[in-house]
Design a protein that fits this description.
The chain has 3 helices and 4 strands, in the order αααββββ. By secondary structure, it is an alpha+beta fold. Among the domains are: about 55 residues; about 40 residues, no CATH class. It has a two-stranded antiparallel sheet. The radius of gyration is 37 Å and the shape is rod-shaped. It starts with a helix and ends in a 9-residue tail after the last strand.
């Protein structure tokens, strides 16, 4: 804005100078007009060179921004982004994208019903509300669990006979 104001003032000064020269003599000769034109052209050239110098001085190499969110907890990052941007904003925290919507504000769809439409396309896994599938393929799952053999059916397993699996293993028949 400051450069624009300087340019406006320079143009006004040139116009004032031109009007002053031309108003003193109504019948200017061609040589006088050439002198005035040369004077105005020199002023314009000087103004352009000054602007170039200012632009060169303003160019400062940008440093890589440091994200304070990497040191913040998720709760702090979420609260900050919610306060600044409101609901519906997508932010990044530790390499993953999240929304500033509260759970109550998010419409949950069953797998049998097609959902509505939203204003962003940042969902990594649109069939998983948490965007986090475990190694068993379960949305928001905890991964494989330990299963213990229960030969007598009392609901208590044998600690010496164990398997780790995503789904309940088939029954043991001995």
């Amino acid at each position: 804005m400051e450069k624009q104001m300087k340019a406006v003032w320079a143009i006004l000064a040139m116009l004032t100078l031109w009007v002053t020269f031309n108003s003193t003599k109504v019948n200017n000769t061609a040589s006088e007009q050439q002198k005035i034109d040369l004077l105005v052209a020199n002023m314009v050239d000087r103004l352009i060179s000054l602007e170039r110098v200012e632009e060169e001085q303003e160019i400062v190499p940008e440093e890589e921004p440091v994200s304070t969110f990497d040191t913040w907890s998720f709760e702090e990052t979420f609260s900050f982004n919610r306060d600044v941007h409101g609901k519906g904003y997508i932010f990044e925290w530790r390499g993953d994208e999240y929304t500033t919507d509260y759970l109550e504000e998010v419409q949950v769809f069953s797998s049998a019903v097609v959902g509505g439409w939203v204003l962003n396309g940042h969902d990594v896994d649109d069939w998983c509300a948490t965007n986090n599938r475990d190694i068993c393929g379960e949305c928001g799952g905890t991964g494989p669990v330990d299963w213990y053999a229960d030969r007598d059916g009392d609901g208590l397993g044998d600690a010496t006979t164990m398997t780790t699996s995503c789904a309940e293993p088939t029954a043991i028949n001995e």
